[in-house]
């Protein structure tokens, strides 16, 4: 057994589909997802209600205000997610360029 040579371990290659989330990113996604779902449901409900009832269409200002108020944090959340993704992609490209040199 002492004479046996150890086989070299194969390097694990990342295929670009691997996702690693930190604790703070997971918390952001868990708190952000319900807000997006409510925003989408409210938008769908407004469209459905306005197209099926004339009374709702006449008093739609309150519903549109609620949708506008929810749009602000949803937009901020998407901005944060895209900013983090952009930074991660940029760092990954820089690392690949360093490895090539």
Q: How many domains comprise the coordinates?
A: 1
Beta-strand portion reads under 5%
Structure summary, number of beta strands: 0
Shape: elongated
**Order of helical and strand elements:** HHH
Helix content: over 70%
For the residues shown, what is the average pLDDT?
80
| Number of helices, counting only DSSP H or I runs of 4 residues or more | 3
Uncertain spans, ≥5 residues at pLDDT below 50?
none
Radius of gyration: 24 Å
Largest pleated sheet: none
How would you describe this protein?
This protein is an all-alpha fold and 101 residues long. The protein has one domain (23-100). It is 74% helix and 0% strand. It has three helices and no strands. It has helices at residues 23-52, 54-58, 61-100. Helix 1 packs antiparallel against helix 3. The relative contact order is 0.08.
What are the defining features of this structure?
3 helices; elongated; 101 residues; 74% helix; mainly alpha
Question: How would you summarize this macromolecular structure in one to three sentences?
Answer:
The protein is mainly α. Helix content is 74%, strand content 0%.
Task: Note the topology.
Layout: H1 23-52, H2 54-58, H3 61-100
């Amino acid at each position: 057994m002492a004479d046996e040579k150890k086989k070299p371990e194969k390097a694990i290659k990342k295929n670009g589909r691997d996702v690693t989330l930190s604790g703070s990113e997971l918390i952001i996604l868990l708190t952000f997802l319900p807000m997006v779902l409510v925003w989408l449901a409210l938008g769908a409900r407004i469209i459905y209600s306005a197209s099926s009832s004339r009374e709702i269409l006449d008093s739609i200002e309150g519903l549109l205000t609620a949708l506008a108020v929810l749009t602000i944090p949803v937009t901020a959340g998407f901005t944060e997610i895209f900013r983090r993704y952009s930074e991660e992609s940029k760092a990954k490209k820089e690392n690949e360029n360093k490895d090539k040199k």
